[in-house]
Structures are given as C-alpha cells and as structure tokens.
Amino acid sequence: MAAIIRRDGVRSFVLFTVGGMGLALPLDSVLEILRPPALVPIPLGPPSLEGLARRRGAVLPVIGLRRVLGLAGAGAGEGGAGDGETKAARLLILRHNGQPVGLLVDRVSGLSAVDEGRIADSATAPDPSIDADLLAGAILAGDGAAGDGALILDPGPLIERQFADLGRGPAGSADFSAAPQPKTVAAVSQDEEQLVVLTVAEQEFALPVAAVREVVPVPETVIRVPRARPHLLGMMTLRDALLPLVGLRELFGLDAALDATADRGLGKVAVLRTAEGLVGVAVEDVREILRVPRERIDPVPPLMAREAEFEDMDGIARLDGGARLIPVLSAERLFRHGAGSGVGVGIHAQGREGEAAVATEAEAERAEAFVVFRLAGAEYGLPVAAVQEVLRQPDAVTPLPNAPDFVSGVTTLRGGVLPLVALRRMLRLPDGRESGGDRSRVVVIAAGAARAGLLVDGMAGIVRIPDGAIGPAPVVSQAQHRLIRRIGALESAAERRMILLMDPAELLDMDQLADLLATV
C-alpha cells in the first residue's frame, strides 16, 4: 500500500476525477500538477500509454487513466473527453523507481486532509469495477472536498501493471531510462559521394552531405535587410543564433520577378557550412539523399566551366542511365555566384552576429547529425552515417515468401536486392501514407553487410542535435527498447521538437525483431 501523509490522525490526498469517477492519490506521491503539454506518440507501448512529454529536461511517459480503468472514450489528451473536460485535464507527475511518470486525468478537484476514520481499506472499497490490487483504500462519503467519497489509487502497482511486458525479458523491470548506445553502422564508401537533393523552381540541385549542417523548416519570422539584393531574403534565427538567409531561386535567377515576400512555396532551409560561417539557403523541398558513385559525377563541360556563372558547380550527377541530370553545387563557391552583386553573406557582413555564428558552429561539433523523417504524426531520426540514401518509392515490389509481416517485399537497387520494411507495420501503427503518395520515401539504411529500405511518410530534413539535448528514451516495452533507445529534444524560442532516435543495427536484425514483435 502506498505511503500516505499522516498528521494527528489526518491523511493528505490529491483529489481528481476520471470519467466522472472520484479518485485520489496520496499527496506525497505527486511531484507536480500541470496542464497537459503536447504529447509525442511513441510506438510499441502499452494501450494505456498516451505518449511522451518533456518536463524540466526529462522525457517521461504519460499514462491515460481512462484507458487504465477501461472507461469509455480516449484519454483527455486525445479528445476522448468533452471540450470542457479537455480544458480541465491535468497531468499528475509521479516518481516511480526513481523516474518521473505522468498520469493524465480529466479534472483535479483539489487537495484534502481526511480524518483516518473516513479511510476504508481496499477490500471494502465501494466500487467493485476497479481491481482491488490497484487500490490503497477508499475515502468514505462525508463533509469537505472529498464529501462524495473517492477511491485511493496505489500508484506503484498501477504503473507496474502498465509496463508488465518489461518484466518478461532482458529489458528488465520498468526502468524508464536505460539506453545503450547504438551499434556501429556502415561507413560511406570512398568511391561514393553522399548528396542531398534539393528542388528549386521544379529543378533539382545537389549538395554534398558533408557541407550541409542540417535542414530545417523555413522559419515563421525572417528579418528583412534594407536595400539588400533580391537573393538575400534576410536574417533568421537557428537555436538563438543569427544567420543570413539566401534564396537559391533568386540567386540563380530562376524566377527573378517573383517578390521574395510572396508565397514562394518554400518549405526548407539547408544550413550550409562555409568558410565565413553558417548560411541558410531557402529551397522548396529536400527530396532525397543519394549515394552516387564518383564515376557517375562528371565535371562541368569546359565550355560552361569557363563562365563565371557556373563556377559554383562541382559537377553533374548522371542518374537513371543519364535520363536524370543533377548539378552538384559547391557550398564554398556557391555565394561567389552573386559576389559581384553584393551577396555579402557570412561573418564579414554579420559583425557580432557572425562571431556568434562561428561560436555556434564550434558548439555544433559536439552534436550528432540525423536524417529525420515523419511517420504517423511523429518525427524519427537515424544517424546520417547509417543512411545510404533516401529514394522515391519504387513502382514495382516483389513479394517475399515466408518473410516477417512487416517486410513488404524486395526491389532492386543498382543490381542488388533491397528488402523493403513497412515501418508503420513494424511499429504497430495505423495504416497510412507510407503505402504511397508524392512525399513518401524509402530510407535505405545499412549496418555491416546488411541493408534495407524503410518505407516512411515523408522527409523532415537533416538535423544536428547537440549532445546535451540527446537523452535516453523511456522504456515502455521490450520491442521499443530495442528500436528506440534515445530521444533528441530541441527547445528554443522558435521550435519545440522531440525526435525519436532509432537504432539502425537493431532495425536490420529482422529475425529477432519478428520474435519480439510477436509479443506486442
């Protein structure tokens, strides 16, 4: 039975309701009571798990008490309650085995000091619909805040039961912080170039992955610079550092008549490393990450190479048998293209802000780069080193007999066979966009000699996450513990993101995964 604060024959409780039922928790078991923050769904958890929340630098699992108690409707955080109840919903933060856990309730009634004479044990609780093992007793009807009575929950057994799966295997008991480091992944071959493919004015361009620090959404606010050239769209902030924002469309003169403030269809900013510091380049989309053999990247034809307008090109990638040509840009020479026109980007134009950008770049060296993709409303990340390329979904997929249910089939990639993994199915998520659509992609990962293509809903970009922003993922099941071991939490004035970081080596261990997922 949970400990209860006692003073002179009086016990203290937090009183709340779930589905109209009056419930209570011992006051000393509740660390905080707050409005529910935005929750990030995490797959392969128990049915009662609403998602993950971030509080005071820690990531904690949130359990919906409606689900635990089998009451009608989803948790208040998912709109299962009415609008009034949703606004009144609260998150109770408890500590279990040294780790914070959130309980989502419909409404908090208040705090109450209850005479011991009004406390009954769980065996005589008035509501038989709740398992007596989850109860520490009952407050009998009387006067005061708990006048109608309430069932006293025992938080220990209640939380342990939600994560009972953890006690059946090597993941151990419900320790929400265990997070081994990911296994070694395959390196990029010296005979290949890893390229990020960007689209501008419906044309494709590429930049070496090594030159791209990260790819982020276009910020809501861009500070315009007076009397600036059309391609210098202004200044933007990236995690509290200022950097210039250049429009690649304007820089190349692909649509010079279009005003930079109009709806340009821009969706991404590629943050480039240059000798002068960080520069943001606005593009319409980031479509793919490709590993291209160097022999398929031709030099710029001599007639064009003599022209100053083409000095920002390192070469031209020939794909699909020459049917697809992609100019490969040089991050260092890219801004010389408009230097005579006063591009003026970099630390020389930024002054004190430029020094801050250089400092930020130095700090960024203590960070990891991830390819981030979307799946069922959440963001997932894989180490850039583990991602060979990101492709459009193939037109033809060959079924693979006797394969695990999450393997959609196989396709060919440069003469080799590539198994395709339906990531939604693997993670037990509802069917959705990964089966098709213009933005659906195949993320090709490798670890050692093994490789596979992951079917995802779409790309979010490349993100560098500081080491200090990466922490262990709460362990909510053995299968989740194998696949999602860390979480990247980015918080600034401009963004709040929680990225679920996957282990590529574990994703490729399909035989063991199939056995483990059979228990979910």
Automatic annotation (TrEMBL):
Keywords: Membrane, Plasmid, Transmembrane, Transmembrane helix. SUPFAM superfamilies: CheW-like. The chain crosses the membrane at residues 12-31. Residues 10-164, 192-340, 367-513 form the CheW-like domain. One of its GO terms (biological process) is chemotaxis. It holds the Pfam family CheW. InterPro entries: CheW, CheW-like_dom_sf, CheW-lke_dom. GO terms for cellular component: cytosol. PANTHER family: CHEMOTAXIS PROTEIN CHEW (PTHR22617:SF23), CHEMOTAXIS SENSOR HISTIDINE KINASE-RELATED (PTHR22617). This is Chemotaxis protein CheW. It comes from Azospirillum brasilense. The lineage of its organism: Bacteria, Pseudomonadati, Pseudomonadota, Alphaproteobacteria, Rhodospirillales.
